[in-house]
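Re: weekly structure request thread

Next one in the queue (441 aa):
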Amino acid sequence: MLDVPGAYRAAPRHPDSALPTMDWWHGFRSKELTALIEQAQLSNLDIAVAVAQIVQADAQAGIAGAPLLPSVSGMASAERLREVTRGSAATSSQFNLGLSASYMLDFWGKNRATLYAAEKNALASRFNHEVVALSTVVSVANTYFQILAAQDQMRVARQNLAAANRISGLVQKQFTAGTASQLDVSQQAALVAQVRASIPPIEVTRRQNIAALAVLVARPPSNFDVSGQSLSRISVPRVTPGLPSELLTQRPDIRQAEAELAASNFSVEAARAAFFPQIQLTGTTGLQSTALASLFGPGAWYYTLVASLSQPIFDGFQLKNELKQAKGVQLQDLQAYRKAVLSGFADVEIALVTLEQTTIQMRLQNDVVANARKAFQVAEAQLNGGTVNLITVLQTEQTLFTAESTLIQIRLNRLLAATSLFQALGGGWDKPVPQTATATQ
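Done, posted below.
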């Protein structure tokens, strides 16, 4: 048994006030992101593979259900025979036209259990499709956010490079006037070089993520680009997690694990029923004649009816081991289902905490950036007036550069936490959402 908690530890006071909508990605308020996700839903190759797996699973269910129906086949033959006996030859013909039908009585339920197992596997393949589709949507969103973060980092790096060059010019003037040393010039030049060297790795990250996003939407990377500008323009939608018990019916991976467990239960039934006798009914009817002209005459008709029973006696313990294997798969699927449920609860808790704390951290980091920028502006003005030493200016420069870079990373982490929460909740919920559920910046 699993202990299902009554509420999440980090859940808000009203957990059902803003359940995720089916098109939850609209909450980020980015037309480009919405267009990319819709394109991925239509073109993504992983989703296409999952659809093909559904077709296979449905066909397998049809194959498993075939033994429950009679098997009927038609036959026709024409035979010409020449026999030689004691030097004389005789020629004869024989014509046959008939039907053969066979049916195995599913007295012990083996075939029906096999069918039910295949149907549950087909259902699991549909939940797998939902898992792949949700993972694809989340991957598109996360990759898009990483591209915007790289563009923000690039913009900040270039602004910092311009500021560092500005300070470097002031230090050079002071050196020419004899109020700064060569050490001061070299220190500022090193900072300029450091900022300039930070730009290529950011560009590598940006281009790598653009290529990854192109694959997600099934586009060649060579003619694919993103026009989004900044993470600051992306809204974080408000979402609440509902109750933990509701997660069991909302997350497709949990429902997939449940369907696989049900399939293994039926497989055990089928393996157990294989120990009992099998009853086969066979019937044949048709027309047989030595002359084609009399084939359809009343005397040409014949039929046979056969009932047979077979009972396994000794098969080298094959059936015993097949049952043992089915029970092992059943136990494996049971533990996989338990893990899926517990992992689902943990994923929601982690996402809730991360989203809450990154929101607080972003607000605090905004204050850090504002104060660092003010300190740098004061230090630059005092350096221009010759009332502050270069060490102080260098410290304020580096503090501002680090604070701005950290703020971008926190914004990215907050957006990634939001997509993680949607994924942890299983995507959109097919429930009415109160009108009070609004997006926040």
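The chain has two domains: 24-69+110-273+322-424, 71-105+277-310. Residues 433-441 have pLDDT under 50 and may be disordered.
Next request, please.
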